[in-house]
Amino acid sequence: MSAKVLILGANGMLGTACAEVFSNYDLTLWDRDQLDITDAAAVETSIKKLRPHIVINCAGYTAVNKAEKETQLAEKINGEAVGNIAQACKPIESILIHFSTDYVFNGESKDGYVEFDTPEPLSAYGKSKHLGEQLLQKYGAKYYLIRTSWLFGPNGHNFVDTIQNLAKSQKWLKVVIDQHGNPTYTLDLAKKVKETVETEKPYGIYHVTNFAGPFGTTWYNFAKAIIKELKLNAIVVPWFTFLLPGNNAKRPKWSVLKDSRLEPLRPWQEALVEYLNK
Asked: Cys-Cys link to 102, which of 48, 64, 255, 274 (CB 3.0-4.6 A)?
């Protein structure tokens, strides 16, 4: 029998990608209806009973702007819940895979960030994800902390689908040019995570994104690539973050994640073409 793998947040964009990639394992797929990860007792009981070899935590609070007002909720889901999962995994020696974000950095370094750079989050969302990282490292004996960024893929709300839909109804699309990062295809990410586990890489922190060059790309250039590939008529207009309505959370300007410990994924442009034509 293949090893048991538990995926938390299994109905989301990243969770469904992991379920597809890890389909040759003995999978258990749980979302919020099956387990409230903020309930420490429930997490301990459920994971202890299942005794999975690997737990993949894809659950998370991702509403960056709303987190400024819902700080406690973001901290419960992105922070405290990670500690709950880590504490449940440790005594049964389950391997815990947890995903974090480029938003744990302040974005002041144009050279990007490697795995061992010191986090300094700007927003409530970033701080909640950093709390999760801290609790994972405090409680989790066997963990892979995977930082990634700018996710797109099937079965979830993402930038690519948003641009595609807006371009059908709007001629001019204002997209920010003052944020730099790495777009990441969820299926590429899940495959790299699986490879990392199966080749028994050392536990610890890893950065996994699609390759975007030394300075990353911008949301503006990302949007232009989407429009070009789909041959749409919309015109992408360079814009600035501070001009966007409802944008009350501080975002890092330069948050390029450098994957210094693993072979880089293919360029994001190749992944984008595959996604749009899949």
From this structure: 255
Helix spans in 2-157 (H)? 13-21, 40-50, 71-75, 81-89, 124-139
Q: Which residue has the tokens 């070009």?
A: 228
Residue with tokens 């709390």: 131
How many Å apart are CA 120 and CA 97, to the nearest integer? 22
- Catalytically annotated residues: 125
* Cα–Cα nearest to 5, from 96, 92, 124, 78: 96
What's the whole-number mean pLDDT along residues 129-150? 94
Instruction: Please state whether the predicted TM-score (pTM) of the whole model is above 0.85.
Output: yes
Domains of the chain: 4-152+182-211 (3.40.50.720), 159-181+215-256+266-277 (3.90.25.10)
119 Cβ contact partners less than 8 Å away, ≥ 6 residues apart? 104, 105, 130, 133
